[in-house]
Amino acid sequence: MGIAEIFDRQPAIMFVLTMVILFIVIAILFIISKNYVVEKQKHDISPDFQKLQRSYLIVYCMACFADWLQGPYVYSLYKHYGYNEGEIAVLFIVGTISNSLFGTFTGALADNYGRKILCILYGLLYSGCCITKLYENYRLLLLGRLLGGISTSILYSAFDSWYINEHVNYYKLPNEWLNNTFAKATFLNAMLAIFAGILSYFLVNILEFGPVSPFIMAIPFLMATSIYSIMSLNEHYIYNAISPSSSVKNAIVLWLTNKNIFTLSIVQSFYEGVMYLFIFIWTPALEPIKPPLGLIFSSFMLALMIGSKIYSIMSANNVLDSTKLLEISTFLASFSFLICSVVSTVTFTNYSPYTIQICYLFFIFYEISIGIYLPSMTYLKSHVIPEKVRVTISNVIKIPSNMFICLALLWIHLKEKSHKTDGDIIFTIYNVCLIATTFTFMCSKIFSKFHHKTYKDGIKHSDVEV
C-alpha cells in the first residue's frame, strides 16, 4: 500500500505525522536558538530589560489567553441560541465596525492620558462582553459585540504601545531588543492558544457545560489582567496637551501623508484581512476528509511557533532585518495560496482527498508565515509610528482591514443566499487571498525601499511632525 493510499483511507495519519514533524522542527530550532541566540545575548541583557519584558509578557499572555478561550465558540454559541447565519453575520460585522470606530477614539484617549488605563479597561470591558453571552437576547449580544470590538482593538495596540514606550523612551534600551520580546510574545501566544483550545474543548465537550462555559472561564483571566495592570505596570508617560479629537485628526493626516506608515498599513490591512478570511475557510476546506479539528488547530499553532522561532533566530543574529523578514512572510503567504488555488481547481471539480491534504500542508506554510509576520509588523510599527499618537494610529490603520473583513463577510453571506456550493465559495476565497497576499508582498517590497531610504537619510520616526 502506497503513502497516498494510506492517506486516502486514514487522513488522520497525515495530521499526526505532520504534528510529529512540526515538533521535531521546533526542537531543532530550540537547539539552534540556545546555541546561537541565547549565548550571544545573555551578557548583553540588562536586569531592567528582563524585568520589563517579564511584566509585559505576563500581562499580555493573560490578556491573550482570555481571548483565545472565547474564539472557538463564538459562532457555536450564537447557533446554540438559535440565530441563523444572517443574524450571526450582523453580530460579527457590528464587532468589526466597533473595532474601527470606537477603537480609534479609545486609542486617542490612551495617547492623551496614558496606556495603562486602557490595559486596565481591557479586562473590565471584555468581562462585560463575556457576561452578555450568558443571555440569549439579541440586543444584549449586539452590546457584547460592541464591547468585544473595543476590547480587541485595545488588546492589539495598548499593551504593545505601553511596552515600547517603557523600553525605548524610559529605560533607553536598544531597539534591537524589541525583536526578542515580540518573538517571545508570538511564541507564547501560540502555546497558550493550544492550551486554551484544549481547556475550552474540555469544558464544552467533556464536562458538557455548554458553549457559554469558555466565556465564563475567561472572566477570571480578564479580571486578573486588570488587577495586574493596576499593581505591576509602571507607566512613565508624558501626557499630551491636545484633545483626543485633535489626536485622531493628526493620526489620520499622518497616516495618509507619511509614506512609511501608509505602505506598512496597506501590508497590515490586507495581510490581516486574509488572516480573518482564513479562519472562515480552513474548516469547510478540509471538511470533505472529516479532519480531526483539534489536531489541525494544534498543528497550526505549532507552525506559528516555528515562524516566531525563525524570526527570533534570524533577527538576533542579524542574518535578516525585520523588513526582509516581512517580505519573506508575505511571499510565503502568497505562494501558499497560489498552490491552494491551483490544487482547488482539481479538488472541487473532481474530488480527491489527496489534493485537499496538499492544501492542508500549505496551510501549515501559511501559518509559519504568520509566525514571522506578527513580530516583524509589531517591531516595524514601533520604528515608524511616533510615540505621541502610537495607539491612535495603530487603530486608525486597522480601518481598511476591518472594511475588507466586513465586505468579505457580506460577500460570503450573499454567496450562501444565492445557493453557491461550498467548493465554489472556497475556490473564490483562495483566489481573493492569493491576490491580497501578492499585493502585500509587493507593498512590503515598496515599504522596504522607503524605510531603508528614510533611515539612511537620518530621519527618525520620533522626529515626524504630529
From TrEMBL:
A Pfam entry, by short name: MFS_5
Source taxon at top rank: Eukaryota
Keyword set, alphabetical order: Cell membrane, Ion transport, Membrane, Transmembrane, Transmembrane helix, Transport
Keyword flag Transport: yes
Transmembrane segments: 12-37, 57-76, 88-110, 117-135, 141-164, 185-203, 215-239, 260-282, 294-313, 325-348, 354-374, 395-413, 425-447
Topology of this chain in the membrane: Multi-pass membrane protein
GO BP term, pick one: monoatomic ion transport
Principal location class: membrane
Family annotation (InterPro entries): MFS_trans_sf, MOT2/MFSD5
Record carries keyword NAD: no
GO cellular component, one term: plasma membrane
Location within or outside the cell: Cell membrane
Molecular function GO terms recorded: molybdate ion transmembrane transporter activity
Function (record text): Mediates high-affinity intracellular uptake of the rare oligo-element molybdenum.
Official protein name in the record: Molybdate-anion transporter
